[in-house]
Amino acid sequence: MSIKPMIRNNICLNSHPQGCAAAVKNQIEYVKKNLQAAETAPKLTLVVGCSTGYGLASRISAAFGYGSVTVGVSFEKEASEKYTGTPGYNNNVAFESEAEKAGLVSITLNGDAFSNEIKAETCNAIKQAAAKAGIPAKVDLVVYSLASPVRTDPKSGVLYKSVIKPIGKNYSGTTLGMMDGVLSTASAEPATEEEITNTIKVMGGEDWELWMEALDKEGLLSSSSCTVAYSYIGPELSWDIYKNGTIGKAKEDLERASLEINKKHKAWVSVMKALVTRSSAVIPIIPLYISCLFKVMKEMGLHEGCIEQIVRLYRDRLYTGSGSVPVDGENRIRLDDWEMRDDVQKATVERMGRVTAENVFTETDVAGFKQDFMEAHGFEVAGVNYN
Ligand code: NAD
Description:
Elements: E1 7-8, E2 11-12, H1 17-34, E3 44-48, H2 53-66, E4 69-74, H3 87-101, E5 106-110, H4 116-133, E6 139-144, E7 150-152, E8 159-161, E9 171-176, E10 183-188, H5 193-203, H6 206-217, E11 221-231, H7 246-261, E12 266-271, H8 286-299, H9 306-318, E13 333-334, H10 342-354, H11 360-363, H12 366-376
Parallel strand pairs: 3-4, 3-6, 4-5, 6-11, 11-12, 12-13
Antiparallel strand pairs: 1-2, 7-8, 9-10
The structure holds nicotinamide-adenine-dinucleotide.
């Protein structure tokens, strides 16, 4: 059966199992070449949000770079007779299969990470995985990489929804249709107080803290354990909709949580590069910015995807062997250092100013944006026979 991408409004509704498997294998090959065993590297890793984007790259890097036992949690729709399964489902299947071939112990759980039930199931899975690998049931690294539009509070049962909106003013900016290269204006109304609070509830640090508490309570954290959650800051031109908007408030709360967790266990927020994942295609201005940024970074030989970013996070920040982790003045790890370089930003902003309907395919890397988006769903992956 030949599977064609079903795309509506920059959202892809299906995925390609063999394409997802090939993309997972490509990431594994990159890690094997670029990450060497390190004495302090994690032996047991938990990744919350393990199936796509930064979380998948974090799991692949820990397993195939360091030989770590991995337990992964994600919320994905399984394949059925009529449905291909979400990309994350197919990535998990591919990861498990490659891990088994390589003799690596791994357990994947599918369910709502915000719930008490999945936290309890994960604690049991950690014990099981450790027993199978013959190592102590002590997690050395907890990666918190959730991106979700909704969260049910496990205590109150209330469902909260997150929004991407500016605060205190209207937002209007140029955006770019990744499929057709059409430029348009996107606007958003300011968020209400309730929407701000709800977005913090969903994408802030509360659940990260609950995960660490649950693991601690079960005695599952090693004395040297550390945890990392991912954030984004981006250039000033996106701040009205991102950093100073509802999502930015949630990310501020993530930083609050990291300081709180840090009182007992080493915890960092790591600021990552803007990348094409399932979420970034639908945030106004971001597709245009990313398309120009990618063009510039590729020309300068500085371009990275999720896997390159995570390998650099492990190799050059968390597990350097020096015992210390380089951070900025606010205890954040910065992997957006290349993106935020003055020369990169200057060239990107200049380019954004030059883009017109006529030159969009030559001045921007909208083709690369689309390619990454398709690959994230298992389509257009090099070497896969789609017929
Ligand atoms: P993604 O959408 O690719 O992955 C999200 C993961 O969360 C998936 O594994 C999904 O299954 C899981 N998930 C969502 N809801 C869940 C639930 N209720 N229970 C269990 N699992 C659930 O996201 P991403 O782009 O890799 O983002 C991960 C983190 O990195 C986010 O905090 C994001 O803000 C941050 N980040 C992203 C970018 C970017 O450009 N994409 C840049 C910097 C930081």
